[in-house]
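testing teh design pipeline on a random one, pls ignore if ur not involved
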């Protein structure tokens, strides 16, 4: 009962915050925009760096994302988390850019011949990604993630770094929930041999 009450309180606070941000963006409040940039700049840049694997491109998309937030602020109604809306804008800008350059969607950039199925992480044991994040060397974590296909890399970053619910990731990536689960499962599985190799090397 207590757990439910706490959850409701947190939910209420989150909803009020979303409404506050929505109203501020509708007014194009410069102080609010500064506040949001300070709070989300590092998280947004990290997401873009993992998404693009290109610092200059990530910088350009970072600036363009905040411009879209300012211009399209009235479109944010506070019905979802601001972070979900923010990452959706950033990802859509990247997808649009890739389409213009290669006429391919983000999903088509990954040459997959198998059909994605609704696989889920059923084990209660820490995942390979959880174990690997405990290593002190952040460069190993980055290298492991960058070894993945983009569609798997982005769901891992959103789930384990941003700690977003799967439903929010589905909104950001415009993918069915079952597809997000499949990509998460396949991404973690793909990291397993890489992580074990590095962990053995560190223990030697």
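output:
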């Amino acid at each position: 009962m207590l757990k439910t009450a706490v959850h409701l309180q947190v939910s209420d606070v989150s909803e009020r915050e979303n409404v506050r941000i929505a109203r501020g963006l509708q007014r194009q409040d410069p102080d609010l925009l500064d506040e949001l940039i300070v709070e989300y700049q590092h998280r947004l840049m990290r997401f873009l760096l993992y998404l693009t694997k290109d610092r200059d491109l990530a910088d350009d998309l970072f600036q363009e994302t905040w411009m879209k937030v300012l211009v399209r602020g009235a479109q944010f109604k506070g019905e979802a988390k601001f972070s979900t809306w923010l990452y959706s804008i950033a990802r859509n800008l990247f997808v649009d850019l890739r389409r213009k350059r290669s006429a391919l969607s983000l999903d088509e950039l990954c040459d997959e011949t198998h059909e994605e199925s609704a696989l889920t992480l059923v084990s209660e044991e820490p995942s390979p990604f959880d174990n690997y994040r405990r290593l002190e060397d952040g460069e190993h974590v980055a290298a492991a993630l960058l070894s993945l296909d983009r569609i798997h890399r982005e769901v891992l970053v959103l789930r384990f770094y941003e700690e977003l619910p799967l439903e929010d990731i589905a909104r950001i990536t415009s993918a069915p929930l079952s597809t997000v689960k499949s990509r998460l499962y396949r991404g973690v599985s793909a990291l397993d041999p890489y992580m074990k190799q590095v962990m053995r090397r560190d223990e030697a």
